[in-house]
Design brief:
eight-stranded mixed β-sheet; VOC domain-containing protein; single chain; 16 strands; 277 residues; 2,3-Dihydroxybiphenyl 1,2-Dioxygenase, domain 1; 5 helices; binds fe (ii) ion; alpha+beta; VOC_core
């Protein structure tokens, strides 16, 4: 598997200051770059979260960070104390426990739906938790889409990503630690029944081999290539902007965690939280 992780997620906002008050002041994500209409946070050493100020309506995205299982309760206490807009289940609870893990959802000022998720099988000595929010890595980015099957198959064939289970409405498509959620626009995001509007976003995948970027480039039609430079390719596919970037992220990490789908030949071994998105 050549895609190793989500290296950056770029979203729109209607207020850079509002973003800063949420992600810096409340979540403790360090700011690594900022201009009048742009801000970039680094929640963990290998991943950045970027916002561009927009004059257009913002369709909320869904994304998730993995945090250590042993520190999840402390993370939740911090989230509650920071007065973030927690999303609740019909029974009024905010934390959800599922087979093998726990998660909690909340929204930022633009309505983007964030999730903190942990899994008991993830080793805690592979990646150090980062910052006040104890982020290990960006686990999920949601891609609401009309042609779920076509998008899923493109991620597999062009980007070498993998699935364990597949459906017409919802799929985890995995590359390294990156779980792209190929989900139907008709399937609402839990736990608040949020309409799954396709967000205006750019998703950067970290990859471990420059030759892989060349192979992807060769599979694209000319109009799908937005830009290219040494070690980076920008492309547009299924209405989403993607970037592929060579990084120094250790490609052995996903298997050491161990993420089941990243261990060759053992992809059938473990049930996952297929319904928890
Ligand atoms: Fe999720």
């Amino acid at each position: 598997m050549v895609i190793t992780h989500f290296a950056d997620l770029e979203l729109l906002t209607v207020s850079i200051e509002g973003v800063k008050q949420c992600y810096l002041d409340q979540l403790g994500f360090p700011v690594v770059d900022q201009s009048e209409d742009f801000i970039r946070f680094r929640p963990a050493p290998h991943v950045t979260l970027t916002f561009r100020e927009s004059h257009e309506p913002v369709s909320p995205a869904h994304f998730a960070f993995e945090v250590p299982y042993s520190q999840f309760d402390a993370v939740v206490r911090a989230v509650r104390s920071r007065k973030l807009l927690l999303a609740r289940w019909p029974d009024g609870s905010d934390v959800n426990a599922f087979d093998g893990g726990k998660n909690i959802y909340f929204r930022d000022g633009d309505g983007h739906l964030l999730e903190w998720i942990c899994h008991s099988y993830i080793r805690e000595d592979v990646i150090a938790p980062h910052g006040a929010s104890k982020v290990l890595y960006m686990r999920e980015v949601g891609f609401p889409i009309g042609d779920v099957n076509g998008f899923r198959e493109w991620l597999k064939s062009a980007l070498g990503m993998k699935t364990k289970e597949e459906s017409d409405t919802f799929n985890f498509v995995v590359g390294g630690t990156a779980h792209a959620i190929a989900a139907s626009t008709g399937r609402r995001w839990i736990p608040i029944g949020m309409h799954a509007l396709p967000p205006n976003m750019t998703v950067t995948f970290g990859v471990s081999e420059a030759s892989f970027i060349e192979r992807v480039r060769a599979s694209l039609q000319a109009h799908e290539v937005v830009a290219e430079s040494d070690g980076e390719l920008h492309l547009m596919k299924y209405g989403y902007r993607f970037r592929l970037r060579c990084t120094s992220f250790d490609p052995g990490i996903p298997a050491r965690l161990p993420l089941p789908i990243s261990i060759e030949g053992k992809e059938e071994g473990r049930s996952d939280d297929q319904e928890l998105v």
